[in-house]
């Protein structure tokens, strides 16, 4: 009888032993501490604004009827009296010229795709977000039937798709593809022979673009700087048809200086004056920043109207018009790490750095925090320097300065 009474207790003991053994085994094979390497990083505070790019654009036209074959690429610099294009008879070599222009478009797209932004390389989701944003923009434009702008946005979307393939490793040697397309184009160019009936030259020095959005005949630096907010608002509310005139050949951006006009929340930039420098990020085009100056500051009742000027030039600006920009008001430079790495020891904020098998507490300042990560910088009270690639503990219990862990 006694043996039967003990049986339930024996079963309970065995179950407890199994659970305890499992916990012990798990603790032996699992790592009680999780570490992450410090990565040099920058972050910033910014004000986001929708606005418009204004450039000194000169329209080039030709009275000769025919098909143009451009001799220079999109964004390429041309000198005064430089040759832009050859004009061929309307009924001759048209198919060949279309093939050449298609190849030039593919080459331009791949060249624009080859310089992948650092933001895309470190965060693959960023390019996916930009692709989705671009698709949404095209969808909205389709409703308005703005054909010329849709073509421009579709080209930008193709560049983003190319960049995505590069980031994912699906395109390994972009330059080899560019070289192959260039060779095909050059072979077709030879077949056109010397059938051109005239040529087009530029009376200006500057940067070439064959695009046309309809603002070329409306906007100019003078119009922007003298017209004030009222003229700016008229332009922002307008949508030109974007159809180029029949005699249109191209446009030349004849000045390094360009302008970005926008409105910002009231007094959000009140500490700045005309002539002060600031950084702009044209987030619709790139994640990089470029220097700009305050050209005009006009306080309004509920907001401020700002015009920035910049001499920092890129080929992306040639086709840019209405876009979203980030006005950077403060930058932070330090190390990026998971926010769980931040610990409090003796009322001091810091991280536990792993040196060999020993952890060391290093006091830090948290400069910037976003989502799951922070940007940190060591304080002057830290015993030793923080180094790039150094491992810090982001998960672990019962840590203290000098503790030996395995």
Feature tags:
globular, alpha+beta, 33% strand, single chain, six-stranded antiparallel β-barrel, four-stranded antiparallel beta sheet, 406 residues
Give a structural overview:
- By secondary structure, the protein is an alpha+beta fold.
- The protein is 33% helix and 33% strand.
- It has seven helices and 19 strands.
- Strands 2-10-13-12-11-14 form a six-stranded antiparallel beta barrel. The chain has a four-stranded antiparallel β-sheet with strand order 3-9-8-5, with no helix packed on it.
- A hairpin with a 3-residue loop joins strand 12 and strand 13.
- The longest helix is centred in the first third of the chain and has 28 residues.
- It is globular, with a radius of gyration of 30 Å.
- The two termini are 51 Å apart.
- 22% of the residues are buried.
- About 2% of the residues have low confidence.
Q: What are the low-pLDDT stretches, counting only 5+ consecutive residues below 50?
A: 23-30
Structural class: alpha+beta
Largest sheet: 6 strands, antiparallel, barrel
- Spatially, the strands of the biggest sheet line up as 2-10-13-12-11-14
Radius of gyration: 30 Å
What is the approximate shape?
globular
Summarize the structure.
The protein is an alpha+beta fold and 406 residues long. The chain is built from seven helices and 19 strands.
Helices and strands in order, then pairings?
Blueprint lengths: L1 H28 L4 E4 L1 E16 L2 E5 L5 E4 L6 E2 L4 E6 L5 H21 L3 H5 L1 H21 L2 H21 L6 H19 L5 E4 L4 E4 L11 H17 L10 E6 L4 E8 L11 E5 L8 E10 L3 E8 L11 E17 L4 E3 L2 E8 L2 E13 L2 E6 L12 E5 L11
Antiparallel strand pairs: 1-19, 2-10, 2-14, 3-9, 4-6, 5-8, 6-7, 8-9, 10-13, 11-12, 11-14, 12-13, 14-18, 15-16, 16-17, 16-19, 17-18
């Amino acid at each position: 009888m006694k043996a039967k009474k003990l049986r339930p207790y024996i079963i309970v003991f065995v179950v407890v032993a199994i659970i305890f053994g499992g916990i012990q085994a798990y603790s032996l094979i699992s790592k009680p501490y999780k570490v992450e390497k410090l990565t040099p990083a920058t972050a910033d505070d910014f004000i986001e604004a929708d606005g418009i790019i204004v450039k000194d654009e000169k329209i080039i036209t030709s009275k000769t009827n025919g098909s143009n074959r451009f001799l220079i690429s999109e964004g390429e610099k041309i000198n005064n009296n430089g040759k832009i294009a050859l004009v061929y008879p309307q009924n001759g070599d048209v198919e060949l010229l279309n093939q050449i222009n298609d190849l030039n478009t593919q080459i331009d797209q791949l060249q624009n795709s080859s310089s992948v932004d650092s933001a895309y390389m470190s965060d693959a989701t960023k390019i996916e977000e930009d692709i989705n944003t671009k698709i949404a923009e095209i969808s909205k434009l389709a409703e308005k039937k703005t054909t010329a702008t849709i073509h421009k946005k579709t080209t930008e979307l193709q560049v983003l798709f190319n960049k995505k393939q590069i980031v994912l490793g699906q395109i390994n040697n972009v330059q080899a593809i560019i070289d192959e397309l260039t060779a095909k184009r050059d072979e077709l160019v030879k077949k056109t022979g010397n059938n051109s009936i005239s040529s087009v030259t530029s009376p200006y020095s500057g940067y070439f673009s064959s695009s046309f959005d309809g603002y070329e005949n409306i906007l100019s630096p003078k119009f922007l700087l003298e017209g004030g907010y009222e003229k700016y608002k008229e332009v922002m509310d307008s949508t030109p048809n974007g159809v180029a005139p029949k005699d249109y050949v191209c446009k030349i951006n004849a000045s390094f200086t360009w302008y970005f006009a926008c409105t910002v929340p009231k007094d959000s930039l009140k500490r700045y004056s005309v002539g002060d420098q600031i950084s702009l990020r044209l987030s619709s085009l790139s994640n990089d920043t470029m220097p700009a100056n305050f050209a005009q500051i006009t306080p309004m009742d509920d907001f401020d109207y700002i015009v920035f000027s910049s001499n920092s030039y890129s080929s992306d600006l040639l086709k840019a018009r209405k876009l979203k920009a980030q006005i950077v008001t403060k930058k932070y430079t330090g190390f990026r790490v998971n926010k769980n790495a931040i610990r409090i020891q003796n009322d001091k904020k810091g991280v536990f750095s792993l040196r060999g098998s020993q952890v060391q507490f290093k006091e830090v300042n948290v400069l910037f925090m976003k989502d799951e990560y922070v940007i940190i910088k060591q304080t002057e009270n830290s015993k030793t320097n923080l180094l790039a690639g150094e491992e810090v503990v982001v998960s672990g219990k019962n840590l203290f300065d000098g503790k030996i862990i395995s």
